[in-house]
Input
Amino acid sequence: MKRIPLTAWIGLAIITLNLAALLFGPLLAPFGEEDILGGPFDPATALNWFGLDQNGRDMVSRLLFGAQMSIGVSLAASLLSFSVGLPLGFLAALRGGWVDTVLSRLVDTIMCIPVLISALVVLQALGSSLPVLIVTIALLDSTRVFRLARILGQGINVMEYAEAARLRGEGAWWLIRKEILPNAAAPLIAEFGMRFCFTFLFVAGLSFLGLGIQPPYADWGGMVKDNQQGILYGLYAPLYPAAAIALLTVGVNLVVDWLLAGRTRPQGEGR
Amino acid sequence: MTALILKRIALGVFTLWLVSVLVFAGTQLLPGDVASAILGQSATPESLAALRRDLGLEVPALLRYSHWLWGFVQGDLGQSQANQQPVAELLWPRFWNTMFLAAYAAAIGVPLAVGLGILTAVRRGGVFDRLVNIVALGTVSLPEYFLGLVLILVLAVQNPVFPSLADVYPGMGFAERLDATTLPMLTLLLVTVAQIMRMTRTAVLAVMDSAYVETAYLKGLQTGRVVLRHALPNAAAPVVNVVAFNIAYLITGVVLVEAVFNYNGLGRFMVDAVAKRDLPMVQACAMVFGAAYVLLNMTADIAAIALNPRLRHPR
Amino acid sequence: MTDILTIRGLRVEAPDGAVLVHGIDLDLKKGEVLGLIGESGSGKSTLARVITGLLPPTAGAVRLDGQALPPSYTARGRDLLRRIQLVYQLPDVALNPRQTVGEAIGRPLTFYFGLKGREQKQEIARLLGLIGLAPDFADRLPGALSGGQKQRVCIARALAAKPDLMICDEVTSALDPLVAEEILRLLRRLQDELGVAYLFITHDLGVVRRLADRTAVMQRGCVVEQGPTEEIFTPPFHDYTGRLLASVPELRRDWLDQVLAARTTA
Output
């Protein structure tokens, strides 16, 4: 590994912290998710590092429980988005012709409307259950993944080594797996990071609006919404979940910046 | 060039139509019976049938779509289900509120961002450049509601400079309106300025490194003249693009900001409509937002064409 | 000797109507080297793409060993694709940067002959030896190889398929002269040992003179001359061939003496 800059280390540390929260949140929480320990917005003490939320529950514990929802849902949506957008994008790049045209037009059509508006329209019709949320966001997001995969695939497909493989008689599956994917890995991983960031912010935003993850599940966006009134009294309560959201976003951005640094040319270009 | 612009306009109109189809399809044709969703537990076969007739769900989809579109074009946006008022009456005042906020943010934000972008590009590597860059990176990574809440805390609660809730009402004085909307405007500003500034800086840097700018300096021209007359016109296209992109972002960013500040704009209106499953309202809002988005993108495209020197002076 | 490659009346038009190849006839005998020379734009590379099936012609037929070739490579069977191999001009982009040398050479072995495991490793080592590289090169990535070494690997990859015809499309044009020299020597040696037919495309007349048994000269999509190399390069020249030869800079130390001698005799 070449020298990893400090910013990337910070980013990786943040991501690790959040992964730990995702996997072990409920185990690490000092108190239960719904335990009432005092009055609304009680200040921080040695037991409750961030104080209590608007219902008198421990903020730290709620954050840890919320991590699973916030991060988990976003991760699921990002993974689904990639598993749809990536193969379709590569296929469009490989096959060209009418496959490419049909898929691209479809994607262009979906992208006509801003993502939030489309999501709101769908949520209005289908409700905000977890599966609906994950699938809707994933499908809307997969359009961006499709575009990137298509461009990357096209860039690699015109390389002579891809042509040599085609001339050999290799099928589409081989071409994607062995010729395109390994050479598109770095920008794709960076893109996954960015898509996750966007999805994460988006889910939290929807929850903040009351249209995302619904009770009884708690997530950070919803916590911001619930504690919002506290800010009018100068209390920091809503800032804790908001800061948690911001922190993870910054962390992933730092790592993505590091991955993308110095990689301005697609693999194979060196003429 | 005129031909290109006309093509863009035609494409824009086509896209508008496409948006209408998508919005209609999204709201009316998705699975999940609308009527039973609205009536919920209290649904009986008779009330379901009655509601369906009221909503016009008995009529085939294509017919419903044409009715809706025709009405929309004429200004009739349907009837709100929740309070039986014409949607248009409720929607347009709030639309203008949102436009006011967006315009306020854009009017200050765009010149500020472009100016900062140019300044940091010209003085690259300096302390000013690095400082601005770090702040920009920070604000771009932070969600709007976080920034909004922090602003409320700092500028409204701890130091009462601005009101913490953005209350606007018709007949308000202009200065009063500005005062009420400054905090939400600042929130929008922070995110968009950062993005536009970074892009402007990159574009100007790319141009400044080119041979013809170097020649301009060697000719003895002052920095100001070099930047304004030689560098900027060629950096204009990507900058216009990112400005347009950000103005389009404002369309969705404004929804979250309005929620933080309880601002009586179209964003908050749409969120309420979705929560209440008020179909006509959601349709109308989605159409308006979608149309604004398409029109802004179209304007950006046309501006980019108009600014492209190769197209302006064809040989 | 029978013909491995027969081209009759080949005509290729670009999508915009421009004619790239004007109905040419070409013959390549088994195991011989046919040099194809011409300036840029003469249609040499277009011809290579037609033969491999990357570019279906507008008219005309290409036959491999008497058997008609489907115009597009997608319509050709695996064994047919095996028998014609193409070596590219730029070795940097002809090799997948994420595949080791062993993987690049080994894939045709598995794909065409089903070789795996130890058998495949032995064959890879043999091929590496054939092109003059040590067996441990099999684990290296193209990034660790020089231009000449990469081109050797490309040649080995082509040979792995045991082709009847190898098309070398300007394979030495991107290499510096010393390295190019090595590659040419390698190709000559391989040709002597294996008897593969080469279609050697180049714009370098010196190379053709050394390597090719027969030569075809192309100009603007037509074959202006075709025959044994000695005949082509012995005067009297065809108009175009003469121009090509004359355009090659020559180092003549005694030019002044010649000029003076010509003056005194005049």
About this structure: The first helix of chain B runs from residue 2 to 28.
